C-alpha cells in the first residue's frame, strides 16, 4: 500500500459511533491509516456523543465536525460542507451510512465543481437495492430472497403480514427491524419504526438460519475488484456482526457477482445472506457502504477502504491478499476516557481539532 509522504488532500469519513450498534466510520479510518499513515482524516458526526470523537489512535479522526441529519436535505449538507472546507482542505468524502447516500448523490456534481471526489452508486442502482424494491429485483435476476411486501398504512401492514405469514420482520425504509410473531405484536413494532423513519414499512418473511456477509468494492462496470466473505459467529441485538469467520463459498461468490454485475455497482457494498439448512442462501439486504467489521479484512491483508481510496486518487490499485478461510475476528469494548469539556466543545461549536500525537508528528517529518 501507498505510504508516500507527499501531500494528499484530507478525506472526510462519517459514521463514527463504535458502541453497541457500531457504525463503519471508525473501522474505515483505521484501514486508511494502515495504508496512508500521514493522511489527514476528518470526521463527520451527527451527534456530539459519537464514541470515535473521544479517543486517540487508529480508529479516530484528526478533526471532527458536526453535520446536519440527513433529513435536513442535500442543500443543507452542502452548505455545511462548504463551511467545513473553509477550515479543512477536504478533497475526498467516504460516506459510511445508508441514510447519507441519497444526499451525497444529489450534491455530487457540485462537490466535483469544488474539487471534492466521492465514489457513489448511480441513483438507479441505489434504488434497485432498496428494501422496498429488493424482493422484485431478486426475483428478476433469480436470486432467492424472503418474500417482502411494502405497506403505506396500518391496515396494509396487517394485510401484508397475513399474506406473508407469521413470523414476520417489520423493517424501516433505511434502518431498524422488529420481529412480530402475531397480530398483537404487529402494531407496536410498526409504530416504533414509523415514528423514527416514517412510511413505507416493509414486511418480510422471518427465516431462521446462519448469517453470512460479503463485503467488497464494485468497479461500476459490473465487476467486483475485491471482496471478503464471512459467517457471523456472534451478533448484537441489532444484528451487527460481533464476531465472524472467513469462509470460502463458491455459491456465495457466484451470487455476489451476479448481484453486483446486474446493478453495475460502483464503490463499497455489503451483501447480507441467510442460510437455511437444506436450502440455498437467500439475500436479506444490500447495504451501500462498508460494514462495521471492515477493519478485520484490512488487518489480514485485504484493505478494501484503502483500495477505494486508491481509486479516488486515481492511482494504480494495490494487489490485495485473498482472505484465508478460518481467520476470524471478535469485537470487544473499552472505555474511552475524556473530559466533559471535550463534549461541550463539540456540542457548542460543532467542531473539535485533535493535537497530533508524537508518532504522527514523526511520520510527518
Q: What can you tell me about this protein's structure?
A:
The protein has three domains: 139 residues, Rossmann fold (3-Layer(aba) Sandwich), CATH 3.40.50; 128 residues, D-amino Acid Aminotransferase, Chain A, domain 1 (2-Layer Sandwich); 59 residues, ATP-grasp fold, A domain (Dna Ligase, domain 1). The strands form three sheets. A six-stranded antiparallel beta sheet has the order 13-12-9-10-11-14. It is α+β, with helices and mostly antiparallel strands and 365 residues long. Strand 1, helix 1 and strand 2 form a beta-alpha-beta unit. The C terminus is likely disordered. Helix content is 33%, strand content 24%. It has twelve helices and 15 strands. Helix 1 crosses helix 10 and helix 2 packs across helix 3. The two termini are 20 Å apart. The radius of gyration is 21 Å and the shape is globular.
CATH class of the largest domain: Alpha Beta
By CATH, the architecture of the largest domain is named 3-Layer(aba) Sandwich
Note the run of SSEs as H and E. Answer: EHEEHEHHHEHEEHEEEEHEEHHEHEH
Q: Could you give the count of β-strands?
A: 15
- Poorly predicted regions: 357-365
**Distance between the ends:** 20 Å
Alpha plus pi helix count: 12
- What is the overall shape? globular
The proportion of residues in beta strands is 15-25%
Write the layout of secondary structure elements.
Elements: E1 10-14, H1 25-35, E2 41-45, E3 63-66, H2 74-85, E4 90-94, H3 101-113, H4 123-128, H5 134-140, E5 148-151, H6 154-164, E6 168-171, E7 177-180, H7 183-197, E8 201-205, E9 210-219, E10 224-235, E11 241-246, H8 250-263, E12 266-275, E13 281-287, H9 295-299, H10 304-312, E14 328-330, H11 340-349, E15 351-353, H12 358-364
Parallel strand pairs: 1-2, 1-4, 2-3
Antiparallel strand pairs: 3-15, 5-8, 6-7, 6-8, 9-10, 9-12, 10-11, 11-14, 12-13
Helix pairs in contact: 1-10, 2-3, 6-7
Amino acid at each position: 500500500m501507498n505510504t508516500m509522504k507527499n501531500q494528499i488532500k484530507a478525506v472526510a469519513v462519517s459514521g463514527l459511533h463504535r458502541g453497541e450498534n457500531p457504525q463503519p466510520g471508525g473501522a474505515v479510518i483505521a484501514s486508511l491509516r494502515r495504508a496512508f499513515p500521514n493522511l489527514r482524516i476528518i470526521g463527520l458526526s451527527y451527534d456530539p456523543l459519537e464514541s470515535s470523537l473521544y479517543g486517540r489512535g487508529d480508529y479516530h479522526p484528526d478533526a471532527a465536525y458536526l453535520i446536519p441529519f440527513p433529513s435536513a436535505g442535500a442543500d443543507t449538507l452542502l452548505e455545511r460542507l462548504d463551511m467545513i472546507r473553509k477550515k479543512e482542505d477536504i478533497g475526498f468524502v467516504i460516506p459510511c451510512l445508508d441514510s447519507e447516500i441519497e444526499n451525497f448523490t444529489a450534491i455530487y456534481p457540485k462537490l466535483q465543481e469544488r474539487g471534492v471526489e466521492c465514489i457513489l452508486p448511480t441513483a438507479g442502482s441505489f434504488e434497485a437495492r432498496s428494501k422496498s424494491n429488493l424482493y422484485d429485483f431478486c426475483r428478476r435476476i433469480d436470486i432467492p430472497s424472503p418474500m417482502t411486501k411494502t405497506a403505506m398504512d396500518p391496515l396494509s401492514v396487517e394485510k401484508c403480514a397475513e399474506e406473508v405469514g407469521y413470523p414476520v420482520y417489520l423493517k424501516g425504509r433505511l434502518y431498524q427491524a422488529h420481529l412480530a410473531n402475531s397480530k398483537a405484536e404487529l402494531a407496536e413494532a410498526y409504530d416504533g419504526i414509523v415514528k423514527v423513519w416514517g412510511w413505507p414499512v416493509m414486511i418480510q418473511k422471518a427465516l431462521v438460519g446462519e448469517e453470512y456477509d460479503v463485503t467488497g468494492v464494485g468497479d461500476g462496470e459490473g465487476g467486483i475488484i475485491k471482496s471478503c466473505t464471512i459467517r457471523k459467529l456472534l451478533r448484537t441485538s441489532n444484528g451487527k456482526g460481533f464476531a465472524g469467520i472467513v469462509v470460502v463459498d463458491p455459491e456465495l461468490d457466484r451470487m455476489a457477482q451476479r448481484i453486483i454485475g446486474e446493478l453495475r455497482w460502483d464503490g463499497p457494498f455489503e451483501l447480507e445472506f441467510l442460510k437455511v439448512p437444506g436450502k440455498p442462501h437467500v439475500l436479506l439486504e444490500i447495504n451501500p457502504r462498508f460494514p462495521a467489521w471492515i477493519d478485520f479484512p484490512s488487518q489480514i491483508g485485504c484493505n478494501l477502504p484503502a483500495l477505494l481510496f486508491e481509486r479516488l486518487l486515481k492511482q494504480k490499485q494495490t494487489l490485495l491478499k485473498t482472505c484465508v478461510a478460518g481467520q476470524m475476528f471478535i469485537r470487544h469494548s473499552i472505555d474511552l476516557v475524556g473530559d466533559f469539556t471535550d463534549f461541550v466543545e463539540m456540542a457548542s461549536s460543532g467542531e473539535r481539532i485533535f493535537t497530533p500525537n508524537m508518532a504522527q508528528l514523526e511520520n510527518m517529518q
